[in-house]
Amino acid sequence: KLTGDAFYAIYPCSASNDAAWTGGAESVTGITLKAEQTPVENTYDPSTHIAVAYTTAGNYSLAFKNAVSYFKLTVGSDNVSEICIFGNASEKITGAFSLKYTPGDSEVAPTVETSKGTLSYVKIISTEANPIVKGNTYYIAVLPTDFTTGFSVEMVSGGLKSTCKTTTNQYKMTRNKIVDLGLIEYPTKTVYLNPGPWTADEAVLSVYYFIKDKKVGGWADFAAADADGRWEAQIPVYATHCHYIRSNPNYPHTWEDGGKETGDKLWNRYNNIDLSKSNCLTVAVADDNSWYYTLSKIE
Question: How many CB atoms lie within 10 A of CB 203?
Fold first, then answer.
C-alpha cells in the first residue's frame, strides 16, 4: 500500500528503473531515454514513449502526458544498418534525465531537465528482427531540446557512414512535438545508359551496384531523365563497380536463372564496370542479332 500526499507515475517501467523522488522535491530523477533505439515501421520504439503523471492523495486518476519529442523520417536507401541524429552543438538529447512537475497541479505539463549521464546522439539500429527497410517510415524519440545551430543526420549503408541531411538553423524541439525530416537517402552518384533498340518489350532496365570484394550491393532502375536522352540511375557513392541489366518485366532484380528463362541480359557479366573509369554504357545489336556494348566516362 502506498502512503503519502502526492504521487508520480512514469511510463514505461523500463525507463524508470532508476527513478527516484523525495516528497516535496520538484523533480523525479533517474529516468532514461535510451540512445540506441529499435526501428519499428510507422511508429516508435515502444520503450521510448515516456510519459509522466502526477496526482495528490485522494485523487486516484492519473493523467499521463508525453515527455519526449520525435523525429519522423522515411528511408530512401537500401542496405541501411543505422541512422544517427545529433545536434551540431552537441546538445544532450538522450540518456539520463529528470522530469519536473509543479507539485499540486496535475494539469501542468512536465518539464524535462538534462542531467549527468545525458548523451548527445540518438540512433535506430537495424536488426534481423527489426530491419531498417527502404520505403518505411520511422519515429525516433529525443528529449525536448533547443538545437542552437541545427542538427545533422548520418546514415550507415554498406558498412560506410555518410551525412545525408544537415541544417544550421536553430530548431526548437518542444515536448510532444514531431519534426518530419522527410526522405532520408544515402548520397548518390549517377550512372548512364544511352538509348537504343533494347528498350522494347517493356523490359526493365536496371543496374546492380556493389563494392568490389565485399558482399554489399543493391539495385537501381533507370529512368529517361537526361537532357541528352540518356537514361539515368542513382546509386550510392560508395559503389565501386556495377552490372547493367535488361530484365523481363515479370522477373526484375533477380539472378536466379542467369537469364536463361526470364530473358535477362547481363551485358557486362565478365567485365564489371569500374566506376572510377567509366559510368556510361552504350548498347547495340549486331547483324547476327547479338548484343554488344561500349563504355565511356561522363563527368
Answer: 17
